[in-house]
Write a sequence for this structure.
């Protein structure tokens, strides 16, 4: 029998929430593996077992599981039956040796774990016995410190599982256990990473994008759609609101002094995003701000922008450098899309000298020239909603 054995960090799962977290993780694994003919995902004690039918492609299963938040690591394993009272490792040894014929390695080690303490053999007994058998049949020496290949063995009550690979998952918590948040996504490198950070802590996410349409093309919208599709591999289903923002920006430009434009755009975005977030029952708004990165992200401007929102503003990248953010974007698969050229609405009519130390009183004064409720309503009326699911 082929299966995937999934491990999760238990620290976050202690106490009364544990059952709920585990059930959520099982459900998310089922969602992630949709379309692969997998029907059995079972919660065993401290691990989850996914039975793989013969037609399931191991590489695709691995790729999908590697994106399920809450998974610490997993392996694609084979199982052989075990008699608890009279454990006999011959069948296990034969199966391992057959599996190793396909692998090239010079040194190896065996790492065993025993879930059922009633088993008369300890983990170390199993490691020694299997190690001796592999050494005898392959002639390869054991290296405990730096082996080319590690054979992982798990002894459960009725079966033993073995595998020669352990694959890292994202860690974090199962999506859905931390409520829903609304992510402001721009098409740049930062905002998809910010969304991912919150998703990884267990949040469901919906996305809000402001496009410069009708003053610029749809290029940023196409990019954002692709980014949200990439992130949907962690979310299974999500929604994207696109708001044509060009007219609202034109009105800001006509009625207010140039240095305040950037901060005024941002405050207007937050108000519209907040209204959508409340409709979607979100508890917070997420941005990709990183302290000091650009004019809109000075301490003063961040504070002034924040004042426009009535929901918590979450900025998971606030203390990260661009290089760190870029590395993460590459890891999660959004970087290549983010660097494609587009026409970001924030660059529309940007003044040569934006205010970097905006004072709130001054800004509130400037903002009096705008009919804010009408502009917010105009944004909401024009919002275009798409449902995005994984697999596409
Ligand atoms: P990124 O856009 O990915 O952050 P950036 O450095 O261009 O890269 P800024 O333009 O400074 O970012 O914007 C900061 C944050 O404001 C973004 O991370 C995003 O959360 C939000 N934001 C900016 N522009 C938009 C937009 N057009 N639509 C939605 N959110 C936006
Ligand atoms: Mg940025």
């Amino acid at each position: 029998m082929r299966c995937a054995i999934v491990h999760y960090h238990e620290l976050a799962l202690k106490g009364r929430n544990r059952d709920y977290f585990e059930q959520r993780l099982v459900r998310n694994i089922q969602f992630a593996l949709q379309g692969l003919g997998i029907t059995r995902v079972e919660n065993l004690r401290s691990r989850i077992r996914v039975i793989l039918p013969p037609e399931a492609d191991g590489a695709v299963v691995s790729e999908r599981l590697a994106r399920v938040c809450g998974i610490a690591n997993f392996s694609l394993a084979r199982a052989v039956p075990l008699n608890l009272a009279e454990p006999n490792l011959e069948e296990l040894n034969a199966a391992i040796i057959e599996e190793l014929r396909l692998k090239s390695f010079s040194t190896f080690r065996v790492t065993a774990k025993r879930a059922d303490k009633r088993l008369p053999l300890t983990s170390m007994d199993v490691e020694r016995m299997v190690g001796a058998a592999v050494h005898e049949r392959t002639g390869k020496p054991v290296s405990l410190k730096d082996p080319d290949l590690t054979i992982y063995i798990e002894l459960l009550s009725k079966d033993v599982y073995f595998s020669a690979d352990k694959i890292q998952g994202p860690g974090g918590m199962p999506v859905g256990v931390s409520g829903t948040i609304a992510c402001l996504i721009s098409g740049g490198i930062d905002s998809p990473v910010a969304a991912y950070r919150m998703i990884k802590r267990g949040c469901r996410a919906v996305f809000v994008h402001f496009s410069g349409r009708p003053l610029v093309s749809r290029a940023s919208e196409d990019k954002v759609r692709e980014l949200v599709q990439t992130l949907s591999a962690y979310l299974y289903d999500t929604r994207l609101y696109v708001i044509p923002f060009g007219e609202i920006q034109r009105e800001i430009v006509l009625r207010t002094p140039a240095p305040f434009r950037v901060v005024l755009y941002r405050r207007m975005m937050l108000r519209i995003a907040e209204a959508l977030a409340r409709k979607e029952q979100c508890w917070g708004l997420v941005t990709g701000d990183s302290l000091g990165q650009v004019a809109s992200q000075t301490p003063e401007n961040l504070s002034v922008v924040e004042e426009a929102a009535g929901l918590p503003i979450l900025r998971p990248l606030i203390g990260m450098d661009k290089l760190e953010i870029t590395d993460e974007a590459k890891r999660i698969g959004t970087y290549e899309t983010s660097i494609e050229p587009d026409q970001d609405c924030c660059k529309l009519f940007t003044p040569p000298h934006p205010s970097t130390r905006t004072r709130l009183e001054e800004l509130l004064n400037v903002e009096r020239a705008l009919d804010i409720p009408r502009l917010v309503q105009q944004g909401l009326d024009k919002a275009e909603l798409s449902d995005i699911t994984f697999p596409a």
Q: What stands out?
A: The longest strand covers residues 71-81. Residues 124 and 378 are 68 Å apart (CA to CA).
